[in-house]
Each structure stands twice: as C-alpha cells, then as structure tokens.
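Thread: Newbie trying to understand structure tokens

Hi all, I'm a second-year student working on a class project, and my supervisor (Dr. K.) asked me to get a predicted structure for one chain before our next meeting. I've only ever worked with sequences, so writing a 3D structure as a token string is new to me. If someone could post the tokens and maybe explain what I'm looking at, I'd be very grateful. Here's the chain:
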Amino acid sequence: MPCKVAAFYQFAPLPDFRELREPLRELCASLRLKGSVLLACEGINGTLAGGSEAIEQLVEEMGRGELFGGRLDNLELKFSAASAMPFRRLKIRLKKEIVTLGNAATDPTRQVGIYVDPADWNELIADPDTLLIDTRNSFEVAMGTFEGAVDPGIRSFGQFKDFTGQHLDPTKHRKIAMFCTGGIRCEKASSYLLSLGFAEVYHLKGGILKYLESIPEGQSRWRGECFVFDERVALGHGLREREKYRAPMTDLDSSVDRI
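---
Reply by user tm_fold:
Sure, no problem. This is what the structure looks like when written as tokens:
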C-alpha cells in the first residue's frame, strides 16, 4: 500500500525530552506510523511513514498540539511517497544529540550559517570562490552529489571535525557552501565552522531533498541519486523512487546522520 513519508527535524530546547518519549510513541502508534525518531535536549529528528491523513495529524500535533507546547513551531519538513511501507517498526529513541558531532560548543540555536534556498543554490556553487563541501558519509556521496563538491571521506558525521582540522583553514577558505540530505548535518556543521572563525558559511536550506523537489531536472547540478535511510534506498528528481534500487524490506535505522 502506498505511504506518505515525512522527514523532519528542528533544533529546539527540549529539556524534558525523556518525558516526551512515551507520549510521542503512543501518538505515532495510534496513527499506525512506522519509522524512527530521535529526541534529545537539543531537539527532534525523525522519518516516519504511514497514511497521508495520519502524517498530517502528526505534523499538526507536533507543531501546534499540547505534546510539545508550541516548541516545534519551525519544523524543517520534507514529504515524499513510497510505493510500500519503507520501515519495519516504530522506534522512538533518546540521544545526547539529534545528529552526532560530539562538540559541546556547537549550538545551532545560537549561531548557524546562511540558509540558501534551492532556487539560489546553483548560482552560489557556480562561483569559483565558493568551496563546496558534501557533509555526508562516503557511501552516500558515492551514490550522488553536486558537481564539483568535495567529499570529506568520512564514515560518520562525527569525523567532520577531523576533516575540518586537516583540510580547512579560515584564512584561506573564506566562502564555504555545504549540503546534506535534509539540512540537519549542515546546521551543525555550519555552527561548528562559525565557532572556529570561518566567516562566510552557507548551507542548502532543506538539503538535497528540497533541491530535488524544487529544481527541474534540466536545470539541476545534481548528479546521481540521493541515498535515504529506508527501504526505498534512493530518490531522484521530484523525489521519485528509483525502481532499480528497490530491495526487500530492511530495518535500516537512520538514527545517526539521517538527514
């Protein structure tokens, strides 16, 4: 049966995130949703799939309902479709970070890079003074990336700190543009670079998924497919499923570096 898939995140203070776990699990279970959600003191990060009306109810509750008390009023949301349920079960997990960088000084609620809408992205990355960096893991980069992007060669996002220390210099790299699947890793990465003294840091708002949804294929600078952490495996322009990648039901847990 076809499903609607919602990928979402927001950096927002949730000091009571432990107490939110069970009510959120009950809500998702009552709506027959499956997927994975991370809760941490710094916010929420998740991908859930189910019926269209159920997804709409979830989004309404997270943004305006009593559960989060209006604290998730600026969710970064992306919707796509799946021809079949792409998750095996529902998981609500508690984490130290909703995307793991491992640097306590990095706080996207305090400072973050300059958001760039998909419509303006091509012009930015065509500028020869822009250093374009793909912040995703190596296996994701291998499946698809933007023309001219630097692959940091990392296995997990936590290694981005090592890449920065070895290859980036705020006195030399004055204009940096970054991207990831849905935007969350770039929020952390841009905040981290700003804390190190990099002056001009940009990131793609809504990530690759929003770009593929918004930009016509004929105007796109994206090459390949975008890896997603569920049974669909990869999405193309228009967030279409790529049949050649379809595989048997998996229990891939996107709890690390999901979007």
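A couple of things are worth pointing out once you decode it. The first strand starts at residue 3 and ends at 11. Helices lie at 17-30, 52-64, 118-126, 138-143, 160-167, 184-195, 207-214. Feel free to ask follow-ups in this thread.
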